[in-house]
Specification:
globular; mainly beta; 11 strands; 4-stranded antiparallel sheet; 2 helices
């Protein structure tokens, strides 16, 4: 059901959407308008790495204009262990899929997965070498590093300035 014909993020497509902390979140995606300069992938699109939230689907607030993850489209968002995750997608700026570098044969332009609890601080999820547990099930070691978004709406950044 469409509840608004004029969302402030425009005619967005290929975004990630999820419900987290009682709010609806929309992240990234693309519009059907060439960027200046044109992006390397699909030149007719402009991709974003912004983050929006809404309590009712009608009134939207931009939480971040530019998150620390690269602009992307065709990705997903999931909530797991009290974190909002973004996973995968396509980097239209560099014409590259966000995939594990081991599998794609190319270096990743951005990590394939990142998570947050606030939308301001994002954790890069990188995977170490694959190992097998004594029971024979696959196991991966995870390493994380935190990146803060530079936004006046983020309390940690406001205090640091």
């Amino acid at each position: 059901t469409c509840v608004t014909d004029s969302a402030p993020f425009g005619a967005r497509a290929a975004s990630a959407v999820t419900v987290f902390q009682g709010k609806l979140w929309l992240m990234g995606g693309r519009i059907a308008k060439p960027n200046d300069p044109p992006e390397k992938g699909y030149e007719q699109y402009t991709t974003y790495n912004d983050v929006w939230c809404s309590e009712d689907g009608i009134n939207w607030k931009r939480v971040l204009e530019r998150s620390p993850w690269a602009p992307r489209m065709w990705f997903i968002s999931k909530v797991y262990r009290n974190h909002m995750w973004i996973i995968g997608g396509y980097d239209n700026v560099n014409a590259a899929n966000f995939a594990c570098p081991r599998r794609s044969g190319r270096p990743a332009t951005s990590p394939p997965a990142m998570s947050t609890t606030t939308a301001c601080g994002w954790w890069r999820a990188t995977t170490g070498p694959c190992r097998t547990t004594s029971g024979g099930s696959p196991c991966q070691q995870s390493k994380r590093s935190r990146e803060m978004a530079d936004s006046p709406t983020c309390p940690a950044r406001r205090q640091a300035r």
